[in-house]
Amino acid sequence: MRLWQFGRLRGNKVKINEELGQALGLVNGSQVFSAMFRYDHNGSTSYELVLSTFGPENYRQLCQLTIQMIDKPGACAQASNFLADRNVDILNSVSLSNISGVSMTWKMLADLSYYGEPSDLKAEFDTLKKARSSAVDLVDTIDIEVSHIADRYNKGAAAGSKTVKTKPIKRKHRTATIIAHDEFEVPQEFLDEIKGLKDGQPLMFVGDMESYVLSITFLEPEAKLVRLSLVIPDKPGAIARIADTLGKHNINMVSLQSEVLVFYESMTLDIIADVSKSTVEEGKLRSSLEEVLALQKGRYFVDEIEHIVL
Fold first, then answer.
1. What secondary structure letter does DSSP report for 180?
2. Is residue 130 domain-shared with residue 159, that is, in the same domain?
3. Which of 244, 293, 177, 216 lies closest to 37, judged by CA?
4. What is the pLDDT of residues 42-82, one digit of tens each?
């Protein structure tokens, strides 16, 4: 699943793509909390808006649970009843049969706010297993880790960096916003913080599934985005040579995705790049990339160069 998209700021609203919205729970009627960060590096300033459906006060007792079960009817029921009886709320989760008829795994984000400490929950489960309770005889193990998804929401994307300065933008009223008509209304306090902000400003949306947040960054008004699709060697240095070629033409890569086609032989490379500061023509860019690919043995080529209309 591609969890990134591009769009524009329209007035004080941003439209959330359906694919991103469904994956992160940012759909119509959702209560959304927002945070903004300012990043400074060598005289350059950028802003990021972070959206989350989990309120900041709930982060303290959110945990990641991994439940190993026997792949038989009733296993998921036992696991969910064990949690429900202790007021543990299952949030985002996915279960999958590892070996048919033998084992399955259920991974989840769960809220223990109405229960207590994760260690106590684990101790209760272990006690039932030692007693060979029929209530959990299809549940093999439960591993519990305190979730750190709050870090992304509270600290931003560059926490711990020695070269990038991160500044959270404070709000007087940290109320939630309700998504309507597939749009999120950006708090005015955030908009006022960004100098030179223009209606129609290009935006990049990135879904962070590990932290369950949507990151929205403000691109330069003059940004010109293109998508490059290539087939390159599956060998060390192949991506570096493409990146070097783009860098020499003053083309800035915004995103990169690679996927192996044939191991040790070929792979696809999809790049989103900003060409606004480059003077190279599309035909020249294609030929430059193809010259690099021609140095390798095999059939490697530039499949497509497509301009992205925001």
1. B
2. no
3. 216
4. 999 999 999 998 867 656 689 999 999 999 999 999 999 99
Q: Are strands 266-274 and 225-233 parallel, antiparallel or unpaired?
A: antiparallel
Which residue range(s) make up the domain with 199? Answer: 4-54+150-218
Q: Determine phi and psi for 67, rounding to 5 degrees.
A: -110, 120
In the beta sheet, which residues pair with residue 213?
A: 52, 208
Residues 48 and 156 reside in one and the same domain:
yes
Residue 78 has a pLDDT of 97
- Alpha helix segments (H runs only) across the chain: 18-24, 75-84, 118-130, 150-155, 188-193, 238-248, 282-294
Alpha helices for 92-216 (secondary structure H): 118-130, 150-155, 188-193
Structural domain tally of the chain?
3
Same domain, 109 and 140: yes
DSSP assignment letter at 250: T
For 145, the token pair is 């880790």
Domain end among 185, 200, 218: 218
Assess whether 24 and 93 both reside in one domain: no
- Separation of alpha carbons 206 and 139, rounded Å: 36
pLDDT of residue 57: 63
One domain, residues 50 and 92: no
Task: Give the torsion through C-alpha atoms of 131, 134, 135, 138, to 10 deg.
Answer: 110
User: Which two three-digit tokens encode residue 142?
Assistant: 């439960």
Least confident window among 1-10, 187-196, 296-305: 1-10
Q: What pTM value is reported for the model?
A: 0.83
Last residue of one domain, picked from the residues 179, 199, 218:
218
Per-residue pLDDT tens digits for 214-231 = 999 999 989 999 999 999
Q: Tokens 């083309």 map to which residue?
A: 251
Domain CATH number, residue 113 = 3.30.70.260
